[in-house]
Hints:
The complex is a heterodimer of chains A (about 575) and B (about 400).
Chain A (H helix, E strand, L loop, with lengths): L2 H14 L3 H7 L25 E3 L2 H12 L19 H4 L7 H19 L19 H16 L5 H18 L2 H14 L1 H4 E3 L2 E3 L7 E3 L1 H13 L5 H8 L6 H12 L2 H15 L20 H21 L12 E4 L1 H7 L12 E4 L13 H6 L8 H13 L13 H4 L8 H8 L3 H14 L14 E2 L2 E2 L4 E3 L2 E3 L2 H10 L3 H14 L8 H13 L4 H9 L18 H5 L2
Antiparallel strand pairs in A: 1-2, 3-4, 5-6, 7-8, 9-10
Helix pairs in contact in A: 5-8, 6-7, 6-8, 7-8, 10-11, 10-13, 13-14, 17-20, 22-23
Chain B lengths: L1 H9 L24 E10 L19 H8 L3 H14 L79 H6 L10 H12 L5 E6 L7 E10 L16 E4 L9 E8 L2 E15 L2 E16 L3 E11 H12 L11 H11 L2 E3 L6 E18 L11 H8 L6
Parallel strand pairs in B: 4-10
Antiparallel strand pairs in B: 1-2, 1-10, 2-3, 3-5, 5-6, 6-7, 7-8, 8-10, 9-10
Amino acid sequence: MSDRYSIRLHVTRRVLGTILVFVGFxxxxxxxxxxxxxxxxxxPIMGGAPTMRxxxxxxxxxxxxxxxxxxxxxxxxFPPVRRTDGLVALGATTAVVTSGALETFEAAARDIAAHVxxxxxxxxxxxxxxxVKQPDDACARExxxxxxxxxxxxxxxxxxxxxxxxxxxxxxxxLNNFYGGLQSALSxxxxxxxxxxxxxxxxxxxxxxxxxxxxxxxxxxRLSLLLWNTIPDEELLRAAGAGELYTQRGLTxxxxxxxxxxxxxxxxxxxxxxDLMVMEAFGDLTKDSTIYPTFxxxxxxxxxxxxxxxxxxxxxxxxxxxxxxxxxxxxxxxxALGTIYRVPVQAAGATEWVPYELSxxxxxxxxxxxxxxxxxxxxxxxxxxxxRGRSLREVFMCQKIPDPPPNVSFTIIExxxxxxxxxxxxATAHSTxxxxxxxxxxxxxxxxxxxxxxxxAQFRIREGNAIIDASGELDGISFHDGKGLxxxxxxxxxxxxxxxxxxxxxxxxRNLSKDEKPVxxxxxxxxxxxxxxxxxxxxxxxxxxxxxxxxxDATDKPRSVTALNGQ
Amino acid sequence: xxxxxxxxxGGSIALALLAISAWATEAPVPEGKSIGFALVTWAxxxxxxxxxxxxxxxxxxxxxxxNWALQxxxxxxxxxxxxxxxxxxxxxxxxxxxEVYKQNRGPHGENTTYNPWLVKDALPLLEVQSxxxxxxxxxxxxxxxxxxxxxxHQKFVSPAGEPGVDNQLYRLIGCWPGWxxxxxxxxxxxxxxxxxxxxxILIEVTGVDxxxxxxxxxxxxxxxxxxxxxxxxxxxxxxxxxxxxTRFPQYITxxxxxxxxxxxxxxxxxxxxxxxxxxxxxxxxxxxxxLKLSLSNDGAEGLLTGYEDVxxxxxxxxNSYVEVVDTDGLWSPPSTYEGVHRLADGYPxxxxxxxxxxxxxYKVTAVRVFLVQPPKNDPLLIDPITVLAKERGIAVR
Lengths: 567, 397
């Protein structure tokens, strides 16, 4: 056993107080990364490279609100980011800011800065200039240093701060106005890459020679983005600066604090599921008004919000079993959604949300039988069992379904020929095409389970004159209707591991490597042990070593397994 | 006029609305055996022939300004009137004030829309001459002879050939362009009827065992308080939830009813309804109001008829159309006022014998809604003045 490995063992003893695990690992260095989680202890991993991602629109909005107050509004619209492996969070690592987008950011920055320094918001500036018509470097330094620390998610270096103060001074002189100069400097901070890009930094790992670790501020940012979907607050930055996030005690204290804020945690959970469930599709959700006249833009908007409310209610407010998302009868309605559900909604106005419990006899239960999932995974004028089935497999079961070939013919599906009385008949006919059958066998039997809900998610018993058959089977579990399918999803063993994997990918902002399988297994086991409570899963993740592990050495090269095991 | 064709052909109220989708949605049966509707259109039920040839052979209603010109026939008189009243009124940008001053036809310059009894129009009121009109037999007679609750009047025959139809309001205003299908009054009111919640009239049918045939149901009319929602084709969306406006118990009316072959028949009942029309608030007061509505999956359409109180009707018309008498409204208030009293056929005053109400028939359509009672703490229903008065121990009427 090498000296480096002995050091790691020593550090492990101090931090974890667990000797046996690493003694066991040390006897076979080649298995260091490939250990299972049978012992219930987190297996070590190499980790991946630190990331650099473009802040998304909601994070930007939250950051502005957190730093300057909710009175200061964000007006910038971010360009769409390509999804990578199904997540925007991963695509953000390859996002670019075009010159056009930069102009938009600059305009927003000027607008925000102008509001911050206006007379109504002077309280945001902790000092007063000696002469409002002249520069005041001391006051500018105080404000820019404080605000810059929050925006950059770390203290500004002396050079960085000097540059901003100088910019404020120069502008103040030209404008004969201190606040005008401050506005100019603040604008610069708001378009700086250090603000817009969430760039993770590393530092030498004092516990492992030649290795690096995420620095405290990067840890704080990862933590805050996941749990609150925003930049670290003052307290978290303080803890980062004091090195508290390197210790389990200090980390746990901050995690406890962050998780103790329900509204903030809701924001984090909403952001994750917004990404997971491809909710930007709601922005384009429209229906053929001649076929579904009731379906409006308001319903489309409410449908997205409803899905998120159901998720937050089940996973955060009730702290319930994640799998119960697919069977819950606790939903939320607005007056507009009430027209789809055909139930009275006693709301005080068009925008009020009302909790609603579906009756036991209601044909709906669970997230997958609500308007959002059903309508967004349908065509403008009809259902789409393929889209509904594909979405279920890819989003919740982590099963990739290939895209259709470019020259696929939908004639059978869209043929109003009465020979095919129902969508099931049409889908079956389409699937006889050998080029289509393979994928459709994976999607359609599931998607047809939702056929009692039309393209606008309205319940129906018939399609034309034919009674709809919504029965099917999901991985060996039979169901008779959409509600039964929800139960089959609930009971499917692929559901918990998939959400664990997705959450981990989202949290670290990258694809996973094979050597992370053991830690995924560990997370899955902890998830099961904790009755599949999502908040517990978040806690497990953010208090794990894996969450902060970076797999690069001091030269930014990925550490090889051989190299690690040889130390 | 597809709706009228259906009405005429069927001899009864039009049946179910056509399903728009090839896949008809099927809603669960409403709980509690009650069904609700919100009225979405309300217009006088006119039998309109091309060019009004049948009903208005002498042409459309004479205008106030025509009567004004006859009242002040010489150029000098007209100049004097114009100069006098234009001087009194403010100058409007772009020219003199509109011809509103031509309503000042009283002997001392009184406004004769507000004081129509002060002058007699030289030009006669052009009444409907047609024998055919929509409506029901309200007084039970075939020949319109006087009864304890009605005055002698002419009857109509329905487009389906049913005799004894009472629709004196049609006789009065059927040749008034504003009230015809594409007229200003109808067009303007069409939007206001659905947009303004003073016009939110809700109908609840309870005790429904079968929506096709049910001998005994109860119909309750309420004022609502909520906005409606419209689809991309500007049609109201069905199955919204509508709160009953419990602040106004005077607008609650209960009446017995029945459903025969999918047609709801209800009444008679005395009914007071709120009204917002041409930016003016008013009320409608019906005596012996009846409904005859053909029910469908998503709504209903048919007739609302009864004896409309003359004074309330006049007040609403006057306040609503005073500003547009000679422009968009196109009527002459003095002869209309005289006409509504002369043609009134219902509920004679026991002292004078003058009938106080006029038979009126309106075409209405409705969408299905869920009616709910508002929660006690619903902020929309808390009147701050009442709250303040109670706090200060002041009695509020």
